[in-house]
Recover the amino acids of this structure.
């Protein structure tokens, strides 16, 4: 999902600043946890407003590429099934009760 891509990109980016002017995001400060949180909330509206879902996802992916971030792979069906077998052994799936 595009919002996960955005969050993971900002979390995993190296350095104290990303220069994303070529993508229309400007310079994004990353010097502290607070700055990274602000970067996510500041970029979030730029990806939400007036964009079709495919366009949003493509822009989020472009942001990750520009930042040089390798995103984690999504869980496929088999991985979820393997996780489900671990329930009761210290792992759970879903929201807390």
């Amino acid at each position: 999902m595009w919002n996960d891509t955005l969050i993971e990109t900002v979390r995993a980016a190296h350095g104290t600043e990303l220069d994303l002017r070529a993508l229309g995001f400007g310079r994004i400060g990353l010097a502290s946890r607070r700055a990274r949180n602000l970067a996510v909330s500041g970029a979030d509206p730029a990806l939400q407003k007036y964009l079709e879902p495919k366009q949003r996802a493509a822009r989020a992916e472009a942001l990750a590429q520009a930042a040089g971030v390798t995103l984690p792979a999504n869980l496929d069906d088999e991985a979820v099934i393997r996780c489900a077998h671990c329930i009761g052994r210290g792992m759970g799936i879903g929201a807390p009760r």
The helical segments are 2-12, 33-48, 53-67, 77-84. Residues 2-67 form one domain. The beta strands are 17-20, 26-29.
